Amino acid sequence: MKTLPLLIFLLLIVASAAAVTITERPDTIGNGQPMYITIQDLPESASFSLLVESSSVVEPGSEFRFQMSQFVMPFSLRKSSVTATLSGTSQNTLEVMKESTIVTVSGKSVDGHFSTTKTYDITRGTYDYFRLSGTSLPTSRSISAQLQVTGTKQGPDDSEISFVVEGLTTGSITTAVVVDGRQVLYKTIPVGGSPPSRGGPSTSGSSPSTTAPPPEQWTTFTSADGQVSITLSQAGSVGFLIVPADHVTPGMKVISGPYSLVPQNTTYLPKATLQFQIPPGTHLGGLAVASLTGDTWTPLGSKFENSTMSATIGSSGTYALLGPDATPATTVPTTTITTTVPTTTAPSTTVPPTKTGLEPFTLIFAIGTGCAVMLVKKR
Asked: Which helix (H) or strand (E) is 108 found in, with range?
């Protein structure tokens, strides 16, 4: 039977993806101690998304610093993006050091958020440190800092990401990993012996359904870039992990997202409200919040209000704001321009090929100015 080899091949792919194991240690950490993310059986060319988020208590209007020293990236990521985000801040400085080279990027926050995303091929290597520092808002009592790397994995199937935590004496660190759209790791650990700042037990892999607390405990969680939020009655927290925009329906395009809500496999009882900010200048016709199931995007019943589009959802998953992919018509000039080509051909000029790879300095800048989506909890 001709279909049997194909079926076996597909089953092997599924079995390979299901065999991925990612763990994080230790279960508690102190300032100056290392963290390890151990990866086993990660298939070649798998879609890999890593999120590292720190949360700490600060004094309003005070200086802060969070640093990941000796950051080891054991494999490369192609077609990748790196996002760095700070929340609850007014001034921000990102510093990256590798060997004798230091790159510094500074900027002001907008409405308490500072985020930048770059698209680069990330190569494997060890960086001396990634330092996030600045000044908290006069009204802030907590700071969140987030690093996200997303791309297609190239390198060893078994490896380990590691870094040393510095400058964070109390608070919590959350790590999340999504492989080919499936959550493999989600865990929150305390720093300095303090309990996790956003509550809920530490979990790894899929998370069980939650039981809804009393209605007065409705809570809103907002992505670090401020583009999407979720309001729900649930114990624990919800995170937003940016994932690749794959399998978009022909004739449609992604306006915002996609975002994978973590922990995955969580049921919201009662149902939650997911709300997207509509970017300025976006045409409202045909806009809808959509969910991804397998390779299919399904538009949800959506409501427009005050420059936002919202939908009611019953579980975590992958969501995006979609709109029609309307390409403006191009006006062709009626005047025909005739070019006379001389019979004598001038000697051709050889143009040096464009270098597509990243030098180490550029890669450092990419990651230093990169890494995404922070959680902002409003009560």
From this structure: strand 101-108
Give the DSSP H or E segment for 259. strand 252-262
Q: What is the model's pLDDT at position 236? A: 65
Q: Mean pLDDT for the chain?
A: 75
In Å, the largest CA–CA distance within the chain is 84
Q: What is the rounded CA–CA span in Å between residue 87 and residue 372?
A: 11
pLDDT, mean of residues 318-342: 58
Structural fold of domain 217-324: Chondroitinase Ac; Chain A, domain 3 (2.60.220)
Judged by DSSP in three states, 100 sits in coil
Residues 6+ apart with CB under 8 A from 280: none
End-to-end CA distance of the chain, in Å?
60
Where are the domains positioned within the chain? Answer: 20-206, 217-324
DSSP 58-118: --TT-EEEEEEEEEEE-SEEEEEEEEEEEESEEEEEEEEEETTEEEEEEEE-BTTEEEEEE
Residues in the chain: 379
Q: Among 156, 148, 198, 200, which residue's Cα sits nearest to residue 177? A: 148
Distances (CA, A) of 185 to 20, 101, 205, 239, 242: 10, 33, 5, 13, 15
Give the position of tokens 């700071």.
143
Q: Which residues pair with 102 in a beta bridge?
A: 97
- Which residue has tokens 């960086």? 127
Place of tokens 């926050």: 109
Q: Note if the pTM is more than 0.70.
A: no
| DSSP states of 328-352 | PPPPPPSSPPP-PPPSSPPPPPPPP
Give residue 25's identity as a one-letter amino acid code: R
Backbone phi, then psi, for 322, in 5-degree steps?
Answer: -110, 155
290: closest CA among 306, 304, 276? 276
